[in-house]
Amino acid sequence: MGERVLVPFDGSPLSRSALGRAITRHADDRITALYVIDPMHAVYEAEAEGLPAARAWSDRMRERAEEICADATAEAADHGCEITTAIEIGRPARSILDYADEHDIEHILMGSHGREGVSRLVLGSVAERVVRGAPIPVTIVR
Predict the structure, then answer these.
(1) Distance CA 77, CA 23 (A)
(2) Taking the chain, what is the end-to-end CA distance rounded to the nearest angstrom?
(3) Three-class SS string for the chain?
(4) CA dist., res. 45 & res. 71, Å (int)
(5) Which of 45, 65, 64, 66 is nearest to 55 (CA)?
(6) Confidence (pLDDT) at 122
(7) Domain that holds residue 101
(8) Are the C-beta atoms of 15 and 7 separated by less than 8 Å?
(9) Among 72-81, 90-99, 113-122, which is the least confidently predicted range?
């Protein structure tokens, strides 16, 4: 059945590149695209827009996650590849590592970064944390 490959996917250009690499180089493997909803974004929205915005945040983020996962599935299908998708809620690096452990993932293939600007500086490098914490091979795509 092949290797179990995890592709953290947030819809950013580099996550799309990582998915493309997985589709082309691991087409015979079991690929999962994982979207992680980071609850810290609700805190930022509550501070910027008030508490009502934060309450609606969960529904908006779930819808966005489902749309991004559907995009990943469609992109894979365009290349004749079938993938599975998953959505987790939590800190991105920890959620990726936990998902990999809980689902016996054998390889993580991810973009070097997904966010830009201040958000990336505040939240740190997810890719770096995954590389440092993963007991399995991690391929970083630029």
Answers:
(1) 9
(2) 28
(3) CCCEEEEECCCCHHHHHHHHHHHHHCCCCEEEEEEEECCHHHHHHHHHHCHHHHHHHHHHHHHHHHHHHHHHHHHHHHCCCCCEEEEEECCHHHHHHHHHHHCCCCEEEEECCCCCHHHHHHHCCHHHHHHHHCCCCEEEEC
(4) 25
(5) 45
(6) 41
(7) 4-141
(8) yes
(9) 113-122
What CATH number corresponds to the domain at position 54? 3.40.50.620
CA–CA gap between residue 136 and residue 64 (Å, rounded) = 29
| Structural domains in the chain (count) | 1
Query: What is the per-residue pLDDT across 32-89, written as a single tens digit (0 to 9) for each?
Result: 999 999 988 767 666 666 666 555 777 888 999 999 999 999 999 999 999 999 999 9
CA distance 77 to 140: 23
Question: Residue written as tokens 């589709």?
Answer: 23
Tokens of residue 127, six digits: 């890719």
**Polymer length in residues for the chain:** 142
Adjacent-strand bridge partners of 8: 34
